Amino acid sequence: MQESSDVAANGSPNGTENGRLETFGSSASTLSSSDSIKAAYAYLPQTPIRSTDAHLIEFSEAMRTVAKALRRVAEGKAAAQAEAAEWKRKYELEKARNLQHKNEELEHEGCPCCMNGTLEDSLNKLTVHDASSDQNECCGNHGICSHQVLGDEAPAPIVNSAYKMVTRKASFRLSWGCNGEKNGQHKHDVVSFEKGDITTASRSNKQILLKWETQPQTVFIITKPNSSEVRAIMPEMVRWLNEHQKINVLVEPRLREELLADDSYFDFVQTWEDDDDKKLLHTKVDLVVTLGGDGTVLWAASLFKGPVPPVVAFALGSLGFMTPFHSEQYRESLGNVIKGPFSITLRNRLQCQVIRDAAKDELETEEPILVLNEVTIDRGISSYLTYLECYCDSSFVTCVQGDGLIISTTSGSTAYSLAAGGSMVHPQVPAILFTPICPHSLSFRPLILPEYVTLRVQVPYNSRGQAWASFDGKDRKQLAPGDALICSMAPWPVPTACLVDSTTDFLRSIHEGLHWNLRKSQSFDGPPA
Ligand SMILES: NC(=O)c1ccc[n+]([C@@H]2O[C@H](COP(=O)([O-])OP(=O)(O)OC[C@H]3O[C@@H](n4cnc5c(N)ncnc54)[C@H](O)[C@@H]3O)[C@@H](O)[C@H]2O)c1
Ligand SMILES: Nc1ncnc2c1ncn2[C@@H]1O[C@H](COP(=O)(O)OP(=O)(O)OP(=O)(O)O)[C@@H](O)[C@H]1O
C-alpha cells in the first residue's frame, strides 16, 4: 500500500532509478503497460529478501522502480484518454453549434446578435456564472439567450401521434440581478486590473432571473412512481395546463399509459417512443415540472444528457431539499413561472467518465454520466478498505483508505457528502467537494476544490478491496484495478426555479429540512445586579 503513495509523492526518479528506467523501458515496450504493472506487483510479494543478500535487495528495488515507471505510463495513458474524451465533447458541441446556426440562418428568427457567440462560449458563461446584467438590452451582449443555451437542433421527426411536437421551443433570456436593482449600471467584473492595482468589483447578489422572450409551449411533467398523492394531483394539473394555459403536456411513456387507462380525455398528452426521441427532449421541452421528492429531481436531471430546460419542483416527497414549490398552490406557482420572469438557481452537474484499464485505445471510452448530487466510490460488499489514488489535474491529492470517497457538487453537499462530514455549500458556489467516507486516518478532512479542476480517481493494481462507483445513488459500476474515474464540471447545469431566490430557498431547506443548528435558546436571567 505504501508503494503507490510513494509513487505519487515522488516527483521524479533519482539518478539510479533513471539508469534502471532505461534498462526496463525497452522490455516494457514489448508488453502493454497494464500487464507489466500487474506482473511487477504480482512478483513483489514473492521476492525473497534476506538482509544478507545484496543482490536480491537490489533486484527488489529495481522491480519497485519498474512498477513506478509503469505507473507513470498508466497515468500518461489515463491523461491521454481524458484529453480524448474532452476533444470528443468539444466535437459534439461544435456539431450542435453548426446545426443550430444552420437552423437559425434558415429561419431568420430570433435575436441576430446571438449569432456572434458560440454555443461553447455561452455554455462556459453559464458554468462560470459571470455574465452581463443589463436586463433591458439585447441578449447577445448582456445576458444569456436560450437560442445559445438550448438551441433547436434539426427539425424533429414526427414519429407517432404521441410525439407530434412540431412547435418551436420558447426562447428566454437569463440576466444577473444586482442587489435587486435592474438598471444594469453596476460593475460585473469579478476582478479588475486598472493602473496596476488589483481590485475586486463591488459585489452583486448574482441572483439569476429567467425572462421568457416567447411564450413557453411545452411542459414535461415527471412524477415519482407509486404515490397516491402524486396520482391525485397529476391529472388535475394536466387538465389545467391544457385548458387554462393552452400548453402541450409531455410525460414519460409509463405515465401516459396510466393517464389513458383512467380517461381517454388524455389522448392529447405526448410522450416519446424510442431513445432517439428521448435524446431530442431538450429541443422541445420549455419547462420541466417534477412531482415528488429530491429523487424525482435527480431522475429528471438524468433524463437530459445535455442542456436541461428550467425545472419547477413541487414537493411531494418526505424531505424535499430541492423541491421548494407547494403542490397545493400549483396553479399560482406555475402561472407565475409561465408568465415569468422568475429566479433560478443554476445547479452545476459533474461529468463522470469511467476509463477502463482493459480499453484497447484512447477512443474506447464509456458514455459519460452526468450527476446532479455526486459520484460515490465505495467498497461495495467487500469488507476490505477501499484503496483509491486521487489526482487533481496533474497533482497527486491523496490515497483514500476507508469506506470510500464522495465527489460532490454543491447541490449534493447537503446529501450524502453531508452525512460523511462534508460542509454544506450554497448551490451557487462554483466548487467541487471531495469528501472521504469513514477514512481510516485521524487527519483526513474533507476538501472543497474550485469548479474548474479535473479529478481522477484510480484503483491501484495492488488494491485489496473492490471499488464501486454509483451516480446520484444509482447505476452502480464496478471499477477493476487499473480502472479510473474522471470527473469535471459539466457544461450543462440544471436550472431550478426558486420559490423566492437561491439563498432564501437554500436557507429555508437547511432550517426546515435538516433542522440546522436547532438548539434551545439560552435563558436570560435579567441584567446583572
Ligand atoms: N448516508 C446518506 O446520507 C446517503 C446514503 C446513500 C445515498 N444518499 C443520497 O441519496 C441520493 C439519492 O436520493 P434518492 O432520493 O434517489 O434516494 P433515497 O430515496 O434513498 O433518498 C435519500 C435521501 O437523500 C435526500 N436527498 C437527495 N438529494 C439531496 C440533496 N441534494 N440535498 C439534501 N438531501 C437530499 C432525499 O430527500 C432523501 O431523503 C444520493 O445522491 C445520495 O446523495 C445519502
Ligand atoms: N419518474 C421516475 N421514474 C422512476 N423512478 C423515479 C422517478 N421519479 C423518482 N424516482 C425514484 O423514486 C424514488 C423515490 O423518489 P423521491 O426521492 O422523489 O421520493 P421520496 O423518497 O418520497 O422523497 P424525498 O427524496 O424527498 O425523501 C427515488 O429513488 C427516485 O430515483
From TrEMBL:
<dbReference type="InterPro" id="IPR017437">
    <property type="entry name" value="ATP-NAD_kinase_PpnK-typ_C"/>
</dbReference>
<dbReference type="Pfam" id="PF20143">
    <property type="entry name" value="NAD_kinase_C"/>
</dbReference>
<feature type="compositionally biased region" description="Polar residues">
    <location>
        <begin position="1"/>
        <end position="17"/>
    </location>
</feature>
<feature type="region of interest" description="Disordered">
    <location>
        <begin position="1"/>
        <end position="31"/>
    </location>
</feature>
<comment type="similarity">
    <text>Belongs to the NAD kinase family.</text>
</comment>
<feature type="coiled-coil region">
    <location>
        <begin position="77"/>
        <end position="109"/>
    </location>
</feature>
<dbReference type="Pfam" id="PF01513">
    <property type="entry name" value="NAD_kinase"/>
</dbReference>
<dbReference type="GO" id="GO:0003951">
    <property type="term" value="F:NAD+ kinase activity"/>
</dbReference>
<keyword id="KW-0520">NAD</keyword>
<keyword id="KW-0521">NADP</keyword>
<keyword id="KW-0175">Coiled coil</keyword>
<protein>
    <recommendedName>
        <fullName>NAD(+) kinase</fullName>
        <ecNumber>2.7.1.23</ecNumber>
    </recommendedName>
</protein>
<keyword id="KW-0067">ATP-binding</keyword>
<dbReference type="GO" id="GO:0006741">
    <property type="term" value="P:NADP+ biosynthetic process"/>
</dbReference>
<dbReference type="GO" id="GO:0005524">
    <property type="term" value="F:ATP binding"/>
</dbReference>
<dbReference type="GO" id="GO:0019674">
    <property type="term" value="P:NAD+ metabolic process"/>
</dbReference>
<keyword id="KW-0547">Nucleotide-binding</keyword>
<dbReference type="InterPro" id="IPR017438">
    <property type="entry name" value="ATP-NAD_kinase_N"/>
</dbReference>
<keyword id="KW-0418">Kinase</keyword>
<dbReference type="InterPro" id="IPR016064">
    <property type="entry name" value="NAD/diacylglycerol_kinase_sf"/>
</dbReference>
<keyword id="KW-0808">Transferase</keyword>
<dbReference type="InterPro" id="IPR002504">
    <property type="entry name" value="NADK"/>
</dbReference>
